[in-house]
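A common beginner's mistake is to predict each chain separately and then try to dock the pieces by hand. The better habit, illustrated here, is to supply every component at once so that their relative placement is modeled jointly.
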Amino acid sequence: MSETLTFARAITEGLRSALESDPKVLVMGEDVGRNGGVFRITDGLQKDFGEDRVVDTPLAESGIVGTAIGMALRGYRPVCEIQFDGFVFPAYDQITTQLAKMHYRSRGRLQVPVVIRIPYGGGIGAVEHHSESPEALFAHTPGLRVVSPSTPQDAYDMIRAAVASPDPVLFFEPKGRYWSKGEVTTGPYPSAQAAGTADVLNRARVARQGSDITLVAYGPTVATALKAADTLAAEGTSAEVVDLRSISPLDVTAVADSVRRTGRCVVVHEAPTFLGSGAEVAARVSEECFYSLEAPVLRVGGFHAPYPVAKLEHEYLPSVDRVVDAVDRVLAH
Amino acid sequence: MPHTQSGEVTGEPEVVPADVTPLVQLVSPTGERVVEPDNATYRSRVDHLTSEDLRALYRDMVLTRRFDDEATALQRQGELALYAQGRGQEAAQVGSAYALAPQDYVFPSYREHGVLQTRGVDPVDRLRLYRGADHGGWDPAAHNVHLYTLVIGSHVLHATGYAMGVQRDGAVGTGDAARDAAVVTYFGDGATSQGDVSEALVFAAVNNAPVVFFLQNNQWAISEPTSRQSRAPLYQRGEGFGIPSVRVDGNDVLACYAVTAEALERARSGGGPTFVEAYTYRMGAHTTSDDPTRYRERAEEDYWGRRDPIDRVAALLRAEDGWDDAWAADLDREADALGERLRTEVRALGAPPTTTMFEHVYATEHAQVAAERAWFEEYENETSEAAR
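With all components supplied together, the output reads:
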């Protein structure tokens, strides 16, 4: 079945499909029940699946993730909602110290298939702690998968794949894209594979083909990169856009295949560039594509300053103009 | 007042220290049954225990003590990286674990050697972590005992979540003794200050989760006395969350059995969580890296030495004609054999193959782990060929 859905609704439908297909799947978090979550992602789910499967939790993030680990040890597949990016840190210890290492320290005897959904990123005029991009902090921890969809179809396919994964998955939802719309083919998992989007938790996708430069992005900045590619096309530059989908693992092969053809690379993300995931992409590109590179890899992202007040966020966030500026500098080599 | 929360010791020992009432006690430190109106319901919970049960409890306590002594010696010989002694806490651990049903599930901290003994976790497996040969060491499903957790208090949330899973499985309140299950989690006085423990109490309380919070107050969190963790008696912590709470003499194995049996019954029948404070003493150091002479008085250790939980069971057995010299001699030999086995088999635990460091990082393939492993295997092959 195919229908036009918002990004937000695609996640809702993905969760609904997961809850329908496996009685062990649970949704838990603050206000996810009658309220449907502050972004309404879980809207209607408690009514349809009951309070035992769509669980309003106490207001305690470490408690949410810590009890989700315990439920996973009992055979459940909890999908936790963290209300906003900046509120995940009370759970950081449980995520990095317990969740990430349980399978490893038990030598594979225990599995903790917990999904942690985090609305992240800026651009919606929010107050402090409501616009951050902490994905690199989790991608640096072995044992976690860290992904971020950029389209409604990927949002649907990737939440289904995340729930089905035996590994813990940090699922970063670009909240600025919640209201964007697209055609979404829904259906029982794994119909997504049949639709040709196999392995959405591991493989990047080429969002736009081009020949002069590779723009690498994920989550909210894929749209920025695509707009930049439009602008560049008008100036006669053909930009390829690679949507990583996953930050851990990183699909180095897909990025390198593109950069070997274009010889140039710019990475775009909202998180601060210093020690961000773009730094890893740049390092891998320099290792894999050294003899194909015509110019250094540049990064466009947030600055090494706390996320600013909303009235300054559009100067802080990587804009189309800043991406085009970086491309111009790369092309000048 | 023989002992206060600040660790101060004055005067002669009393049967029940003045500052720890109320306290459930069924056997006095000298081995006599304590019969009071207050403890009638708990007395009724041990009525069915025979002298054979008492000997089984005694055996697990003695073997736990021997395990502790051998492990400490192995660490001193450089055979273990570290060891956390459980000496003095055998009654709290063995008594509580003796009340468990097979389908119940345990989340220990890292000092619950007596619980593992009673649950049947292999003694050599219990030392793999401390040997530096494994981060876990046993199969949690084999005995329904989760792995040790070294970060203080984190597992108390896991236990609570597990109990919420038990609820969803419909394994609570069915009245089927073989089906209804509960979860017990062990933690210490220091852990009560962790936010995760408070969050676990909140989650357990509002969900009515079938979990028993078994706090062993052994008076010391490394060098900090309980007075640095709380100004109120710790059993009251549970009450503050609306959870039935009880303080028990942690050196009285029967009292620990009785309060845990009551708590488990409440949990399994759908009555929700219970908070137990077992008032006991860490007779050894925090770990083999710790030197308690830096922060506590010899007189205090002597006071608790006179209240050794193992001596108490021996005195009770003798008083009630449950002691048998031939049986005791057999137990000595069993303990000796345990020591010998540990000395031999723990020393033989070598390093696992180097590539195990790449195994089970993920349950499904992860490109970076796979690439690094492939590189490392090639690197090892090249360096070993070069060495030839």
